[in-house]
Each structure stands twice: as C-alpha cells, then as structure tokens.
C-alpha cells in the first residue's frame, strides 16, 4: 500500500475514533469485520497519542512482579519506612515506628519514635550499631519520598558516608475521586531525562513549572515544545503524491526549503503526558 493511501486510511481511523467517543481501534476493527455498522471503513490500528484519551483513560503503570536486583551481602541494601502516627500512643508517648530491613538476610530492626523528625537521629544510631557489629558498611539505603528522608541534612550525611540513597514512589490516593475525574487524569510535561535515584523519568511539569520524577507517563512522539511561544507544536508529515516531472521538481524545491528552515530552527524536546496521583 502506498504512503498516500496509508495516510488517508490513518485519517479515517482517527475520524471514526473521535466520532464514536474515542472508541479503541481494536473495537473499531471488530465492528468493521463483523459488519455491525453501516459505512464504517476498514480501520487501521494506529500507534499514536490521543490527548483526549490520555486525559480520561490513562492508568498507572503496573509494577513488575519480581525485582531486577537483590543484594548479595549483608548491609549492601537497606530498606526503610516510617509508620504512624498511631491513634493511641505507647506508655513512652511514642506514636511512630521506623523499620530497617536488610535485603540480603531479611533481618529487621524496629525503633519507636515520638515524632517523624527523629528519623535522622534514629538512622545514625542504627547505622552505627549494625556497622560495628557486622564489620561492614551500608552501601544503599532505599526509602520513599517522605520529607523525613528527603532533606538537605539527610542527603548531606549520606553523601559524606558514601551511602547511595534510592527513593521509591509515595502511595497517593484521591480523597475526592469525583473532583479528580472531572479535572482529568493527566498533565502535560517535557521529558528531560532519566532519574538516577529512582526507576522513573525526569519531567518538567508545564502546569506547575516544577521538575518531578514519574513513571506513569505516555510519550507523544509527534509533539514538540516551543519554548519561545510556550505551546505544543505538531510535526508535519510529508506525503509524496503522484505528479508530473515538472511538478515533482517544484515540490522538491519547496520541500528542500522547508528542510532548510527546520534545520535552522532550534530543536525542541518531546512532550509527555503525566498521570496525576
């Protein structure tokens, strides 16, 4: 099939996708094959980004069932998390506790705290204990993105002690789901690279003007961000047509001029759609 015919078929597929309330392409193909709709043309499954579908249908990415890396020695990787506040305090007025789990041996340590602000002090106490007893050093600490772990004091200590601090994702849920659905599920962002601390992407959120780390994104490969005009631009696809030699020469000149202009224009990063937690 020629490129011109494929382009026309793609346009028809997108048209019927929108006409039927953004019905998925596989469903449209079944309707055509079983002749369940009059005048429905042959539908081509298209790998592209539909902004309306992403706004209303984007889901969180599934987490892998297994892990890609496990520690091979004690203290090579320590998992930690904080639980609390508890409704009823202990006899010592503690309302929180913090866990440290060694990934290799699965040995667990529990410390009780009155406030979350004690996390840094407790971690130093734990580090001193296990390193003196084992004769080894903590290499990697893995925590969530809570402020008790992610602050300048904690980061500086890990850097000075040669500890790699990895972070996972906070579990966030909507307290008002109706409001969340009315506002859409995604926000636009610009892909800046990969995070070195988490299994996620570094995204510049165009709405909040902040850099975030997210794994729940969908790339729009045909969109570019224009920093000067602060808007999304679409890449145009040149589709060859059957023409006479003279007309081909004229169109070739126009195409060369367009390519020259595009090379002069500064490159723009790809845009992405970020799922809001």
From TrEMBL:
<dbReference type="GO" id="GO:0003964">
    <property type="term" value="F:RNA-directed DNA polymerase activity"/>
</dbReference>
<dbReference type="GO" id="GO:0004519">
    <property type="term" value="F:endonuclease activity"/>
</dbReference>
<dbReference type="GO" id="GO:0003887">
    <property type="term" value="F:DNA-directed DNA polymerase activity"/>
</dbReference>
<feature type="compositionally biased region" description="Polar residues">
    <location>
        <begin position="263"/>
        <end position="277"/>
    </location>
</feature>
<dbReference type="InterPro" id="IPR039537">
    <property type="entry name" value="Retrotran_Ty1/copia-like"/>
</dbReference>
<dbReference type="GO" id="GO:0015074">
    <property type="term" value="P:DNA integration"/>
</dbReference>
<dbReference type="GO" id="GO:0003676">
    <property type="term" value="F:nucleic acid binding"/>
</dbReference>
<protein>
    <submittedName>
        <fullName>Retrovirus-related Pol polyprotein from transposon TNT 1-94</fullName>
    </submittedName>
</protein>
<dbReference type="GO" id="GO:0016787">
    <property type="term" value="F:hydrolase activity"/>
</dbReference>
<dbReference type="Pfam" id="PF25597">
    <property type="entry name" value="SH3_retrovirus"/>
</dbReference>
<dbReference type="InterPro" id="IPR036397">
    <property type="entry name" value="RNaseH_sf"/>
</dbReference>
<dbReference type="InterPro" id="IPR012337">
    <property type="entry name" value="RNaseH-like_sf"/>
</dbReference>
<dbReference type="InterPro" id="IPR001584">
    <property type="entry name" value="Integrase_cat-core"/>
</dbReference>
<dbReference type="InterPro" id="IPR057670">
    <property type="entry name" value="SH3_retrovirus"/>
</dbReference>
<feature type="region of interest" description="Disordered">
    <location>
        <begin position="234"/>
        <end position="277"/>
    </location>
</feature>
<dbReference type="InterPro" id="IPR025724">
    <property type="entry name" value="GAG-pre-integrase_dom"/>
</dbReference>
<dbReference type="Pfam" id="PF13976">
    <property type="entry name" value="gag_pre-integrs"/>
</dbReference>
<dbReference type="GO" id="GO:0046872">
    <property type="term" value="F:metal ion binding"/>
</dbReference>
<feature type="domain" description="Integrase catalytic">
    <location>
        <begin position="60"/>
        <end position="248"/>
    </location>
</feature>
<dbReference type="Pfam" id="PF00665">
    <property type="entry name" value="rve"/>
</dbReference>
<dbReference type="GO" id="GO:0006310">
    <property type="term" value="P:DNA recombination"/>
</dbReference>
């Amino acid at each position: 099939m020629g490129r011109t015919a494929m382009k026309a078929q793609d346009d028809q597929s997108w048209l019927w996708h929108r006409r039927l309330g953004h019905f998925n392409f596989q469903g449209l193909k079944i309707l055509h094959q079983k002749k369940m709709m009059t005048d429905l043309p042959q539908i081509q499954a298209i790998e592209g980004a539909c902004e309306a579908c992403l706004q209303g249908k984007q889901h969180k990415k599934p987490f892998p069932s297994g892990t890609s890396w496990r520690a091979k020695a004690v203290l090579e990787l320590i998992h930690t998390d904080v639980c609390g506040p508890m409704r009823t305090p202990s006899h010592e007025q503690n309302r929180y506790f913090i866990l440290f789990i060694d990934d290799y041996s699965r040995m667990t340590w529990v410390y009780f705290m009155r406030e979350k602000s004690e996390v840094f002090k407790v971690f130093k106490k734990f580090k001193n204990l296990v390193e003196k007893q084992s004769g080894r050093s903590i290499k990697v600490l893995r925590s969530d993105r809570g402020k008790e772990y992610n602050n300048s004091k904690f980061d500086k200590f890990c850097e000075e002690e040669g500890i790699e601090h990895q972070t996972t994702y906070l579990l966030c849920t909507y307290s008002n789901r109706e409001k969340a659905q009315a506002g859409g599920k995604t926000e636009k962002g610009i892909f800046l690279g990969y995070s070195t601390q988490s299994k996620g992407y570094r995204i510049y959120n165009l709405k909040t003007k902040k850099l975030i780390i997210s794994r729940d994104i969908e790339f729009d490969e045909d969109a570019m961000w224009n920093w000067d005009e602060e808007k999304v631009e679409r890449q145009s696809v040149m589709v060859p047509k059957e023409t006479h030699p003279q007309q081909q020469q004229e169109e070739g000149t126009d195409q060369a001029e367009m390519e020259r202009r595009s090379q002069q224009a500064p490159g723009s990063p790809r845009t992405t759609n970020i799922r809001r937690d």
